[in-house]
Design brief:
The chain has 6 helices and 7 strands. Strand 5 and strand 6 form a beta hairpin.
Length: 182
C-alpha cells in the first residue's frame, strides 16, 4: 500500500470519528432526566387522586422511552381506572400498562384495616405518621393478611408499626415492608 492510500484511509477514519458524538453517555443522561421529570409528575398526579387513601398503594415503573407500568393494590376499582386516566393525561407518558390489583371486597378485611390504623396511630411516636395529608405508611389488607408499605424515619418506628399490626386479632400474617429513610 502506498503512502497516499494510507493517508486517505487515515483521513477517512479521522473524519468518521468526528461524526461520533463526543459522549455516548449523553443520550442515557437525557433519558434519565426525562424519566426523572416524568416520575415526579406521575407521583404528583397519583397523590392528588381524591379517593387514594392509606389503605391503597399505587406504584409505577418507567420502562423504555416512555412506557409507564402501574402496579399496586387498591380497595376500589374506580381508583385503578382513575390512576390510569391521570397518567394518560401527563405529557411524555406513552404506553400505559395498568397492573393495579383491585382487592376483594371483604367486611373482615375492612375491620382489619381500621383496627390496624387505630393500633398504629395509637402508638406514641407513630401517630405523627398518620396525621399527615398523605400518610407515609400504607396498610394493605388482603384475605386477612396485612402488608405495611411506605417510609418511616427509624428502625424503631418500623419495628413498632410491625408489632402494632401483629397485635390485630383475626389476621393470618403481617409483612412489614416499611423502609427506613436514610
Amino acid at each position: 500500500m502506498n503512502t497516499r492510500k494510507i493517508s486517505t484511509l487515515v483521513a477517512a477514519l479521522a473524519f468518521s470519528l468526528c461524526l461520533i458524538p463526543p459522549s455516548a453517555a449523553q443520550p442515557k443522561r437525557d433519558l434519565k432526566a426525562s424519566h426523572n421529570r416524568l416520575a415526579k409528575q406521575i407521583r404528583t398526579e397519583l397523590m392528588m387522586l381524591s379517593n387514594y387513601s392509606l389503605f391503597d398503594i399505587l406504584e409505577f415503573e418507567i420502562t423504555g422511552l416512555d412506557t409507564v407500568v402501574l402496579s399496586g393494590q387498591v380497595t376500589r376499582p374506580t381508583l385503578k381506572d382513575d390512576a390510569e386516566q391521570a397518567v394518560r393525561g401527563i405529557e411524555g407518558a406513552g404506553k400505559i400498562i395498568n397492573k393495579v390489583e383491585v382487592l376483594p371486597l371483604s367486611p373482615e378485611d375492612d375491620r382489619i384495616r381500621i383496627a390496624t390504623y387505630r393500633a398504629i396511630a395509637g402508638k406514641q411516636g407513630l401517630d405523627r405518621y398518620m396525621v399527615r395529608a398523605a400518610p407515609p405508611i400504607h396498610i394493605i389488607v388482603k384475605n386477612g393478611n396485612i402488608t405495611l408499605i411506605g417510609n418511616v424515619a427509624t428502625q424503631a418506628d418500623k419495628d413498632l408499626a410491625g408489632i402494632a399490626a401483629r397485635g390485630i386479632p383475626g389476621t393470618f400474617g403481617v409483612v412489614n415492608n416499611l423502609r427506613v429513610e436514610k
